[in-house]
Amino acid sequence: MAEQQKTVTFIIQRQDTPDSAPYEETFEIPYRPNMNVIAALMEIQRNPVTKDGKKTTPVTWEMNCLEEVCGACSMVINGKPRQSCSAMVDQLEEPIRLEPMRTFPVIRDLMVDRSRMFDALKKVKAWIPIDGTYDLGPGPRMPETKRQWAYELSKCMTCGVCLEACPNVNDKSNFMGPAPLSQVRLFNAHPTGAMNKAERLAAIMGDGGLASCGNSQNCVQACPKGIPLTTSIAALNREATVQMFRNFFGSDYSY
């Protein structure tokens, strides 16, 4: 008698349109060793049939790099926001529940609109401005100690997991969240980026900025890259206080 094929059960929260009500569908797929959640979703996409034999539409989700670099495949897996490319089926309790991140508007199924986070990055000018595209030659040197901690902050892949984990980021709050705040510290630490330091600090000293952080520290626990987000927020609080006094006494913005 042939041995019965081992299977894996997924319960997926689905949503057909941004305005429609969410519902759940259960899928059972053949088990394969070393399978991640993305591989399971691709199996369901190839054969979109529920556990009870009902033909349905393929599940919609986002993915790109498949190696925890792009941040596109964020979703809530067994109640925890994380990357589905690095979530291994063998390490998950069954049935495996997949849900979209509810901090962001749902577009369809597991795919969300992360514009809220990207708009916040625009607000804080999370980039190094340069004058033209020509070769500027070697840039200013950074002390090695500063370069090391700045590199840790640069690992952010804008996955949105920290915003999903933060209780202060929701549809009743305009808090920009941990990731954009940490990027302010990163770009203010750069010798060229420091020229816009006061402007970035002004952006986070206003509504939806630092004052909206409740210091729950969920973001540090959830971050897939282990970025010291609360350390950045604490450092920015000190810098914002100094900037506030500079503004009050009319000091020059230069540091």
From TrEMBL:
Record-linked SUPFAM superfamilies: 2Fe-2S ferredoxin-like (SSF54292), alpha-helical ferredoxin (SSF46548)
Required cofactor names: [3Fe-4S] cluster; [4Fe-4S] cluster; [2Fe-2S] cluster
GO MF terms held by the record: 2 iron, 2 sulfur cluster binding; 3 iron, 4 sulfur cluster binding; 4 iron, 4 sulfur cluster binding; electron transfer activity; metal ion binding; succinate dehydrogenase (quinone) activity
Record keywords: 2Fe-2S, 3Fe-4S, 4Fe-4S, Iron, Iron-sulfur, Metal-binding, Oxidoreductase, Tricarboxylic acid cycle
All copies of domain 4Fe-4S ferredoxin-type, residue ranges: 147-175
EC number: 1.3.5.1
Family assignment from sequence similarity: Belongs to the succinate dehydrogenase/fumarate reductase iron-sulfur protein family.
The name this protein goes by in its record: succinate dehydrogenase
